[in-house]
Amino acid sequence: MVASGWRMESGATVLEEGGVQFRVWAPKSKAASVLILSGKAAGTVPMQPEGKGYHSVTVPGAMDGDRYLFQLESGKTYPDPFSRYQPNGVHEPSQVVDPGLFHWMDEGWQGIPLEEYRIYEIHVGTFTREGTFEAVIEHLDYLVELGVSAIELMPVSQCPGSRNWGYDGVYHFAPQHSYGGPDGLRRLVNACHKKGLAVLLDVVYNHFGPEGCYLDEFGPYFTEKYRTPWGRAVNLDGADSDPVLDYFLSNAGYWINEFHFDGLRLDAVDWIFDQTPKPLLRRLADEVHRQRERLGRGIYLFAENDTNDVRLINSPEKCGFGLDAQWCDNFHHALRALLTGETTGYYEDFGQFAQLQKAFSEAFVYTGEYSRYRRRRHGGPTERHPGFQFVVFSQNHDQVGNRKCGDRLSATLPLNQLLLAASAVILSPYLPLLFMGEEYGERAPFHYFIDHGDPELVDMVRKGKHEEHASGVCEGEIPDPAAEETFLESKVSVATPKEGEQAVILEFYKKLFSLRASLPALRVFQRDAMEVFGLPEQKVLFLR
Amino acid sequence: MVASGWRMESGATVLEEGGVQFRVWAPKSKAASVLILSGKAAGTVPMQPEGKGYHSVTVPGAMDGDRYLFQLESGKTYPDPFSRYQPNGVHEPSQVVDPGLFHWMDEGWQGIPLEEYRIYEIHVGTFTREGTFEAVIEHLDYLVELGVSAIELMPVSQCPGSRNWGYDGVYHFAPQHSYGGPDGLRRLVNACHKKGLAVLLDVVYNHFGPEGCYLDEFGPYFTEKYRTPWGRAVNLDGADSDPVLDYFLSNAGYWINEFHFDGLRLDAVDWIFDQTPKPLLRRLADEVHRQRERLGRGIYLFAENDTNDVRLINSPEKCGFGLDAQWCDNFHHALRALLTGETTGYYEDFGQFAQLQKAFSEAFVYTGEYSRYRRRRHGGPTERHPGFQFVVFSQNHDQVGNRKCGDRLSATLPLNQLLLAASAVILSPYLPLLFMGEEYGERAPFHYFIDHGDPELVDMVRKGKHEEHASGVCEGEIPDPAAEETFLESKVSVATPKEGEQAVILEFYKKLFSLRASLPALRVFQRDAMEVFGLPEQKVLFLR
Questions:
Q1: Which of A452, A451, A455 is nearest to A485 (CA)?
Q2: What does the pLDDT look like over A301-318, one tens digit per residue?
Q3: Quick one: A393 and A451 in the same domain?
């Protein structure tokens, strides 16, 4: 059993008194069974209907490590939507996991205050040669020495195949098998906490991946009312949506309680549609903050969004959603467009010195102005929110990986400009985020890669990337997202000792973090206590 | 010219110095012309591109009464999306209207305070034998004598054909030709104000009707991102959405300035999708309240919604939308289910005495509880909003007309229960609304009727009604929505002198309104200053 006060209502729960309770929401199915495929309880056990579409049964002989599937009325079998582990991928059986067996050694860990977050974004598969959670651990000293205070893992939900950015996850409770599954992930978080590092997880609550998702067989997880760029929207406000909301609320609680995560980064929340008076985002904030109170440690919710809307971080008393912080893409765009002079895609809205100045003073550059790229007014004011409610960066997985050639700033910018970019982010009145390898000017690209099993789907993804990048700026060919090589090319070389320019950059990043930590003036987040002025001619910006 | 300080940016504007400015947003078209079909300026006049998709031209010789069409790059011609008058229906030319020619006689009209609203809902086509705006005027004394303080017109936007509830409107600036067009409507509002009656207009900003809508030829008025039950959703947050927002903002300003309306009832706002930080509803509230300040008279926005969500009426400071009041369907359902014992459709969620008690004390009955009908949690709390921010009724066009046989309460309830229903509404701590004819127990049904020109569409509507009412409680056949008879059967007999039971009911309604006006205890809208308790056995409810 896991720490008291937390229990997942669905899935396979190992009971304190022995045995396992299996529970599944399958309102479309009048009957359901659990097929235990290994261990001493192997066999088919019919489940009891509980009402409202839930089926459950307790199997006394079942235990940690047993493989199982759910069988629905149709006779067909599927993995558990709440599976904690998919040892053989998305199409194969789930495995019972007893989270109580892990020996946590982070007692006394209190988390870190929000304003102390200095975030390092990691894609587990490409961060090390091994591409596992375990292998990340070896580099934690390096990260501490660098001066960051938190790592943020790109999504780890079980995806099709063994290579993926993570946004094709279909089992949101099952850490990717090829990364080392739940135990590997727990070891990583445990090790981070021992080093004083917080750990954030990127979670995708706006859609499910295109392969291995059998949720339709269970219940109305999806709606036709809204559409996302990645397929059907999740059903959060239609008939039978309460259990769908519970799926995501449980998921947030699960990562916090069973994995000791310090916070979640909610992917693209503007594609989470919920018209009810208390929408999912608001419920998530309530749930996570309740866990924060209960556990007595700092736990935060960060939102990625594209709408420049502070209702996300407004308090519930102001009828906001009450999230803790949000990503600020505008800061990135303003900075990058000035540094690189790019004018394609969304960069056409940027490139003026005054915009960077506004990004420094108001976080959002578009606060209601007309955007040529969007062909409409864009954004709203940031009001009086302090700077630590905004996360800024000069690079991240999207801003690198969604480019035609996956090229980082270091591929084109001279040293002095790379250092300028670093300074702008790390000395900003916001929370800085780096993308792995940025700290030494990694030259490897970060490509888009997948490992889907369905050839038609692979073709669709290839085609999609070609359309997306039809007018891309990079010369070379678009790398094949499905090729292992594309994935391997994206690996960073954190482990290699740095020489020459890379050593200079690394040293500079360390200095910046040390400066940020030591200068009180750099810890003023009340934006109205700060003055920003600039000399456009000289491209100099002053903050005081 | 109309009163200073208001001018519509698009459509045909008669200029003070003579001539007409024609302006149209048609970003899909590189060129556009206006075809003037009558009058001394008859001819084709090319328009000048203004940028951002607008085309405009001033035609010196054009004037009020001229018929015109816009010709787009394709060579095809269409009526004006901002047409003030469609004298021959949705497919035919628009007509230039000079709103300054009407002689208003309501100087000094201040509107009425929100808490004084006692609303009488009218469908213009079936309220009188003539079915015109003009014919309504004859009955205003009757309404004043009855004791209501405002009439609310079901939508009057130009619809296909001559018979329609109004929700198939496609020219939202053009009052229905078969009702008497813009001049008829102005005469009606003018007459109301002279009698001391306020006038509200039901407006449909969530969709356009299925026939005669040529907006696609002009620009991206629609989006595929969201779907409504009535077809494509309006594009309020995608590319090129600013002019679409302006269309609706102009529309609200138009009814207030050019027609002196005292407020708007926004139809089904839960199907208006806008994810931007300052969504349409918020902008509408701002615009209407700006007009209120400017004109110095009471002007209000009422929302119909199905979500039990006070964010609609929360102030912008609380990041609400700032609308003035909202309809409260829950009150109706709780009351009706108790009176009639109905348990089908959404009435399955109602029928308990305690629910009516809650409706009296909290307005919403579902404030987060599970709804069996919706198969999910429903609603949120009403917080401390005063009672005059909720509109209640025992009947309205939907609650009568969406029934299989369009039967009113008077078709089945005995006299004493009709009087009880009236008392519950009129003596409630909310704003009461009656549906025309209710005040004397009208026996005529209120059917659903249309007059579309497209036979396929007519078949679809017929089929839809049959599906909708497959399990309806009424015996008889479903009346044919397209038959004129169905429309004629729905006419009320306000003009006929009342005898017997009808006279008793009418007298009772008058007494109730007079009681509401004279008893201070009935004007306490602060819900926490009120105590509601009931004796479920005796079905008695006390308010104090």
A1: A451
A2: 999 999 999 999 999 888
A3: no
